[in-house]
Structure formats: structure tokens, C-alpha cells
């Protein structure tokens, strides 16, 4: 089954053709990063307009690269939630138009489910059940992945996502957007033990996260230093803050995986590209005899190949939508409706 997949939930306009959920025939990503850099983050209005400009040619190129025409395609998968609503609507409406004109079935795909599916592309042998830590710009979830379409959230952030905290910290350090990526680079030359940050605790749950206190403590540290006219060593500060976030993610992952009894640990989402996280998780898994899976770097961030992969498994469950399909800014991963 060949799926044409479309993704426009944030600041990448992407399309891909994926066969049987695992074989990527094409993967086109038009990034808007350059447009948003001057604003220090994604400007939703600009993102929507840029998706509208790019989407036709991105889809056309995805078909061309896969040496396909729309006649060779069996279904159209599209990210419909969660994300920036104006951005999502561009992809959803384009997919609906294509479905109407071609008669092909439409498969709505949850963005975080597709981030998890990025691992099916990198590891053709990987099958649920497994544990997954999803760390994207807007979400931090620990998930018991019971099957391709059955998810149980066992831990989540109560406030900011880990990615959001990294982005805000990076911005305060004067690093360009996308902050997480630039923090990763600068931290490579730093000492992760140079500064101490609190290990946050969340009431009544051992597995939930809270990143807002950590974020505030690094912002305060930087502002206080500025007021005193002190220059902070950014590589050390970046590495120490990253270490606090990564250690927190790793400790809770260890608790959750032990509780669930899984042997397979999967990373997903933009932050799963982070070198320190990948290194620490590899160590944790080695110590416990668990197998670690993390997507190839090009499939960590937003792309449509992962949408085509998850779309295949949704289609197996007959999770098709009609032309009334809408987009949603929020949508739980474990209880999707459309
Ligand atoms: O999954 P994603 O591409 O988009 C959302 O669905 O949100 O995740 C974006 C997040 C941003 O917070 C970005 O700073 C972070 O992923 N990110 C990284 C790295 N690359 C991207 N964070 C840390 N290290 C990286 N190498
Ligand atoms: Zn994403």
C-alpha cells in the first residue's frame, strides 16, 4: 500500500510517499527556519502563509521523487492534530482537495503518533509493545505503546515541555532559534557539572514532569549575572542545563520502564535528536539490559515520512475520515477523534 503523506503542523511543509508503513520512497521537507529566526521563534501567521505557498510544489516533488503519479497512490495521510491550527488547516485542506479530486481515502494522523512511527522507518524489525519517551517542542509524554494504534500515557509534563524549556533557555542565552539544536551544539564543549539545577518534584505522581521551575532558575541565573555585569561561560551553562533536563527525563524513564516491565525503549520527537539525551539513554538501557531505539536524525524533527508510516497502521484499522475532517490544536494521543 502506497501512502502520500502531508505534514504542516508547525514550521516545516512536508510530503512523502511511503510503502507499507516502512519503505520511504520520497521525503520532501521545506523548512521555514530562516523566516522565523529573526523573531526568535515560530510566528504562527507567517507559518500558515508559508505552508500555503509551499504545499503544492512540496507534494508535487514528493510524487516526482517517488517516481509516482497520484494514480499509483492508495491513500492520503495528513497530520490533523495537535499543532498550530492555521498551519494544520493548510495541510488538511490540501489533503481533502486531493482526496476529493482523486477519490482516494483520507487518513487523519495524530502528530505524536507519527513521531513514534519515525522509529518504524529506522528499525524495520521494531514492533509494539514498547515504552516510548516522546519529547517534542510542545509535548513531553511517557507512553506505553500497546499496539500501533493503542497508547497509554503513564507520565506527562504538568507545565512546559522539555523542548520548550530548552528553547526558552537557549533564547535567554542569546542563541538563535531553534534553541534546542543550538544548545546541543554549544553544550558539546561544556562541563555538564559546572552549575547545579534543582531536580523538580511533582505532587502525587512519580512519573509526571515539571520543567517550568528549571526553566525559571536558568533564566534568573542569566538575568542576575547580566545585572552584575558578569559574563557566564555559555558552553558550561548550556551543558549543565541540558544535563538537568536530560537527567530528569532519564530518571523518570527508568522508573516507568521498570514499572511497565518493557525491554524495548524508544525515543521520539525533535528533542530525541539531542546528543546528550541519546548518550545517557544508551547508558541507561545498557545498564538495565534494554534495547534502545531512536530515529535517524533526519526523522527526529517534523517530516511526512513518519506520517506515511503511522498512516499505514491507521489505515489497517480503517481509521479513515470523510471530507468534513477538521484540524485541532490539541488532541490526546490515546483518544483521537476527528
Ligand atoms: O518534534 P519537533 O520537531 O516539533 C514539534 O512537534 O514540536 O520538536 C521541536 C523541538 C524544539 O524544541 C527544538 O528545539 C528541539 O525539538 N530540538 C532539539 C534538537 N533538535 C531539535 N533539542 C535538543 N537537541 C537537539 N539536537
Ligand atoms: Zn513534531
Sequence-ordered SSE layout with sheet pairings:
Elements: E1 2-7, E2 12-19, E3 23-31, H1 33-37, H2 44-65, E4 75-81, H3 85-102, E5 106-110, H4 111-122, E6 130-135, E7 140-147, E8 150-156, H5 162-172, H6 179-187, H7 212-227, H8 234-260, E9 264-268, H9 275-288, E10 291-293, H10 305-316
Helix pairs in contact: 2-3, 4-10, 5-6, 5-7, 5-8, 6-8, 8-9
Overall description:
By secondary structure, this protein is α/β, with parallel strands linked by helices. It is built from 10 helices and 10 strands. β9 (264-268), α9 (275-288) and β10 form a beta-alpha-beta unit. The relative contact order is 0.19. Residues 111, 115, 136, 269-270, 302 line the site of zinc ion (ZN).
Give keywords:
338 residues, alpha/beta, five-stranded mixed beta sheet, globular, binds 5'-O-[(R)-(carboxyoxy)(hydroxy)phosphoryl]adenosine, binds zinc ion
Q: Outline of this structure?
A:
It contains ten helices and ten strands. The chain is of the alpha/beta class and 338 residues long.
In N-to-C order, the SSE pattern is: EEEHHEHEHEEEHHHHEHEH
Task: Tell me, rounded to a whole number, the average pLDDT.
Answer: 97
Beginning-to-end CA distance, first to last residue: 23 Å
Q: How many beta-strand segments?
A: 10
Class by helix and strand content? alpha/beta
| Total helical segments | 10
Strand percentage: 15-25%
Order of the strands making up the biggest sheet: 3-2-1-4-5
Q: What is the percent of helical residues?
A: 40-55%
Shape category: globular
| Residue windows where pLDDT falls under 50 for at least 5 positions | none
**Integer-rounded radius of gyration:** 20 Å
Ligand names: 5'-O-[(R)-(carboxyoxy)(hydroxy)phosphoryl]adenosine, zinc ion
* Major β-sheet profile: 5 strands, mixed
Amino acid at each position: 500500500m502506497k501512502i502520500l503523506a502531508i505534514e504542516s503542523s508547525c514550521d516545516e511543509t512536508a510530503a512523502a510517499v511511503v510503502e507499507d508503513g516502512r519503505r520511504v520512497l520520497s521525503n520532501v521537507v521545506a523548512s521555514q527556519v530562516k523566516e522565523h529566526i529573526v523573531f526568535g521563534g515560530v510566528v504562527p501567521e507567517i507559518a500558515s502563509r508559508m505552508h500555503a505557498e509551499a504545499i503544492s510544489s512540496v507534494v508535487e516533488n514528493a510524487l516526482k521523487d517517488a517516481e509516482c503519479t497520484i494514480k499509483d497512490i492508495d491513500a492520503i495521510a495528513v497530520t490533523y492534530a495537535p499543532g498550530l491550527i492555521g498551519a494544520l488547516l493548510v495541510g488538511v485542506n490540501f489533503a481533502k482537495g486531493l482526496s476529493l479530486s482523486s477519490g482516494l481515502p483520507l487518513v487523519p494522523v495524530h502528530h505524536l503518533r507519527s513521531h513514534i512511527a519515525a522509529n518504524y522507518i529506522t528499525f524495520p524489525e521494531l514492533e509494539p509493545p514498547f515504552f516510548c519517551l516522546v519529547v517534542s517542542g510542545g509535548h513531553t509524554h511517557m507512553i506505553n505503546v500497546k499496539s500501533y494504534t493503542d497508547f497509554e500515557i503513564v507520565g506527562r509534563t504538568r507545565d512546559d515541555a522539555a523542548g520548550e524549556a530548552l528553547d526558552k533557555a537557549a533564547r535567554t542565552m542569546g542563541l538563535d532559534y531553534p534553541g534546542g539544536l543550538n544548545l546541543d551544539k554549544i553544550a558539546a564543549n561544556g562541563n555538564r557539572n559546572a552549575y547545579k539545577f534543582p531536580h523538580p518534584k511533582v505532587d502525587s505522581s512519580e512519573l509526571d514532569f515539571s520543567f517550568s521551575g528549571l526553566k525559571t532558575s536558568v533564566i534568573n541565573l542569566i538575568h542576575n549575572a547580566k545585572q552584575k555585569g558578569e559574563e557566564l561561560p555559555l558552553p558550561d551553562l548550556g551543558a549543565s542545563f541540558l544535563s538537568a533536563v536530560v537527567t530528569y527525563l532519564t530518571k523518570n524513564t527508568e522508573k516507568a520502564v521498570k514499572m511497565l516491565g518493557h525491554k524495548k525503549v524508544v525515543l521520539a520527537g525533535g528533542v530525541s535528536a539531542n546528543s546528550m539525551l541519546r548518550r545517557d539513554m544508551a547508558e541507561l538501557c545498557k545498564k538495565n539490559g534494554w534495547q534502545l531505539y531512536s530515529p535517524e536524525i533526519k526523522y527526529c524533527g517534523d517530516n511526512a515520512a513518519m506520517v506515511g508510516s503511522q498512516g499505514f497502521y491507521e489505515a489497517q484499522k480503517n481509521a479513515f475520515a470523510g471530507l468534513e475532517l477538521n484540524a485541532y490544536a490539541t488532541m490526546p494521543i490515546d483518544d483521537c477523534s476527528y
